[in-house]
Specification:
3-stranded antiparallel β-sheet
Length: about 70
């Protein structure tokens, strides 16, 4: 099982390799808890950490109250 904590690697862990784009990095959306690709997700920085999101809705929810979701 994946942890909902942001990855210690600022780009997220490499979990696969795409022959066209190279390494595929995955992070966990802190609002929806879904896996998201760091190269195609919305992102926000809070207290020096970058968080990635699978949708604009979860990004907006996070930015409205980041302390409720950040770890």
């Amino acid at each position: 099982a994946r942890c909902a904590e942001p990855a210690s690697d600022p780009e997220g862990p490499v979990v696969a390799y795409d022959n066209l784009t190279g390494p595929v990095r995955i992070a966990i959306d802190p609002v929806s808890h879904e896996e998201v690709r760091t190269d195609s997700a919305w992102k926000s920085t809070y207290r020096g950490r970058t968080y990635y999101f699978g949708s604009l809705l979860t990004l907006h929810r996070f930015e409205a109250n980041p302390a409720a979701y950040a770890r």
